[in-house]
């Protein structure tokens, strides 16, 4: 299986490992990844330098989403969640807040029981309008792949020189625990450097970060699709479950996929 780019604004519905039957919304260009990270495990591949793509407008997203929700409602199709994901970081869209407002209204009209989820790498939660937007959704899912700076930079390859684990943790506290923390566990090598966020040192730092931000739920997962870096390895569900048990003993709700 190759790395993929979504070729439309609306995609699916698909069966998500963590969210159920999910209708995807892609706010990024259809021909290129647009993200503030360049994660070594990203299913969209690594960033293509010099390739520019056009983001859909708020109106284009609204029309595409309403068309799909209306058709699904008429057919009586099942839907559990509307998920903002796609070809990069959705909160980079300059009309993100308005798009979320439109989505809440359309959800209430066509599928009032359905949840709205945003999969974000948490790099834009220093912006008040992004924080406001994420507080509107049911599942504000924020990434933290390591509690150690050097490992986070190796795994996530942030574009911003100012990125830091410490500032990300501080910014996550704005949500008062009303968010879901998502972490990818993996091991392998990157350009000859060993990467493994399952070591005792890594787990201790990550657990400390979790204790600071106190999310309402934690989603732990590992590689499930082909990655752009071929020297990475999947961590077993059994191994992740042992890490999860540490957090469960501290009173946290943890899902392992």
Question: Can you characterise this structure?
Answer:
There is one protein chain. The chain has 257 residues and is of the alpha/beta class. It has helices spanning 58-75, 96-110, 128-134, 149-156, 165-172, 200-213, 237-248; strands spanning 10-16, 20-26, 81-85, 115-120, 139-143, 180-190, 193-196, 217-222, 232-234, 254-256. α2 runs parallel beside α3 (128-134). The model has no long low-confidence stretch (mean pLDDT 94).
Q: How would you summarize what this structure contains?
A:
The chain is of the alpha/beta class and 257 residues long. The protein has seven helices and ten strands.
Protein topology:
Layout: E1 10-16, E2 20-26, H1 58-75, E3 81-85, H2 96-110, E4 115-120, H3 128-134, E5 139-143, H4 149-156, H5 165-172, E6 180-190, E7 193-196, H6 200-213, E8 217-222, E9 232-234, H7 237-248, E10 254-256
Parallel strand pairs: 2-3, 3-4, 4-5, 5-6, 6-8, 8-10
Antiparallel strand pairs: 1-2, 6-7, 6-9
Helix pairs in contact: 1-2, 2-3
Could you list some keywords that capture this structure?
257 residues; alpha/beta; 7 helices; 10 strands; 32% helix; globular
Distance between the termini: 20 Å
Helix segment count? 7
Oligomer: single chain
Briefly note the structural class of the backbone.
Answer: alpha/beta
Q: Please report the total strand number as a whole number.
A: 10
Low-confidence stretches: none
Topology as H/E string?
EEHEHEHEHHEEHEEHE
**Share of β-strand residues:** 15-25%
In helices, the fraction of residues equals 25-40%
Gyration radius from CA atoms, angstroms: 18 Å
The backbone outline, from C-alpha atoms, is globular
Question: Taking all residues together, what is the mean pLDDT?
Answer: 94
**Most strands sheet:** 10 strands, mixed
């Amino acid at each position: 299986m190759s790395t993929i780019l979504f070729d439309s604004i609306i995609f699916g519905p698909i069966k998500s490992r963590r969210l159920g039957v999910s209708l995807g919304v892609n706010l990024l260009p259809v021909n290129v990844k647009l993200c503030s990270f360049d994660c070594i495990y990203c299913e969209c591949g690594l960033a293509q330098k010099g390739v520019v793509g056009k983001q859909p407008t708020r109106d284009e997203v609204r029309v595409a989403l309403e068309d799909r929700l209306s058709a699904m409602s008429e057919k009586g199709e099942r839907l559990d969640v509307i998920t903002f994901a796609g070809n990069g970081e959705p909160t980079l869209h300059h009309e993100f807040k308005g798009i979320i407002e439109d989505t809440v209204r359309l959800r209430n009209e066509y599928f009032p029981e359905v949840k709205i989820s945003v999969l974000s790498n948490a790099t834009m939660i220093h912006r008040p309008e992004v924080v406001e937007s994420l507080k509107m959704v049911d599942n504000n899912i924020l990434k933290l792949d390591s509690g150690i700076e050097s490992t986070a930079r190796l795994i996530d390859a942030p574009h911003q020189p100012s990125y830091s684990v410490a500032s990300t943790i501080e910014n996550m506290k704005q949500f008062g625990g009303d968010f879901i923390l998502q972490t990818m566990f993996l091991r392998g090598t990157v350009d000859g450097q060993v990467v493994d966020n399952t070591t005792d040192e890594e787990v201790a730092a990550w657990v400390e970060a979790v204790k600071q931000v106190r999310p309402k739920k934690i989603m732990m997962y590992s590689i499930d699709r082909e990655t752009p870096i071929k020297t990475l390895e999947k961590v077993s569900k059994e191994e992740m479950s042992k890490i999860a048990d540490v957090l469960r003993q501290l009173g946290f709700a943890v899902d392992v996929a």
